[in-house]
Amino acid sequence: MTPQARVQAGIEILDAVIAAARNKGAPADRIIADWFRPRRYAGSKDRRAVRELVYVAIRQCGEVPVSGRAAMLRVAEGDPALASLFDGSRHAPAPVVPGEPVASGGTAPGWLAGALAASGVDAAGQAALLQRAPVDIRINSLKAALAVLPEPGEPTIAPHARRFPPDTNVEQWPAYQAGAIEVQDAGSQLVCGAVAARPGEAVVDLCAGAGGKTLALAAAMDNQGRLLACDADRARLSRLMPRAERAGVTIAETRLLDGGREAAALADWAGRADAVLVDAPCSGTGTWRRNPESRWRLTPAEVARLAALQQRLFDLAATLVRPGGRLVYVVCSLLDAEGADQVAGFLGRHPAWRAVVPPLGAGERRGDGLRLTAQFDECDGFFVARLERS
Q: CA-CA distance, 50 to 3, in Å (whole number)?
């Protein structure tokens, strides 16, 4: 592909990403893969260059652009070499017309940037959310002897983590294939530590998804005790057990939940769990480094819907904890409506509980919990709180 053709490809992909953001369609990485699948003439360098162009444009546009061309023109305004490729030649984008739409800059749509600012995330903190994320791995203590890495990596805030440059393909390493390492952001690893899961305990991962935190909990428990992983998403939950087998985890069991009927499905666990982790569905504002287009998908109504779901799951989790047990609430969001406000509301509804700030060695205090940020902790953004039942 010529440089001009790469730019035009980026514009076409951006059109699809913008449409998907407006209509709750596929994520950008899948759209890029689907676009290239029938275009076998594009080599690996072409794919890499186009992908980079697309993500640069996504990161530079705050509001949802009117078109992929408008998004790419935003990038071209600060890159004369890129602007020169709008020359109208074969496979190239048409020449720039004076006055045509150019996407606006910024870190997020105005309402969302304002909500983050009101939650204590200033402009620098928001900008840090749009930097490229490194690749973090967790060394699986159940198979630590097999964790022979081709390069040492860098230490992070999490004790069992190592960090590598973006796009490091660790899935091809023998240590990954042997289950000795897992790809997991350092912040995600650290919030698992807030559970303080111990061998022999009964622990519930209430919103387990594909099981990344479940596997970390199993390692902390030294594969001893009971570990129940639940989720309402059948497809995501089905990926957990193959991952558990590869990681040498034998104590995990899964349970598919029916949304709105979770209490009945978990009646046998009522008041029995030593600890419950609620990694609640959220807006994902802390994960923009990996999914920058996700900020175009959010609306105030969606945040309100998620907050209502978080409250319901929070209250459900409380019914599963034994007297003296603990409940850890986590969201990968930096909005107070999904973090500190949720904990304050929970404590108001449940006077028999108290908040205990977990000693993570990182993060800053936010309400009755801790906030991890890309700006200060060099990880995805998280809010985490630990509640204990009297």
A: 9
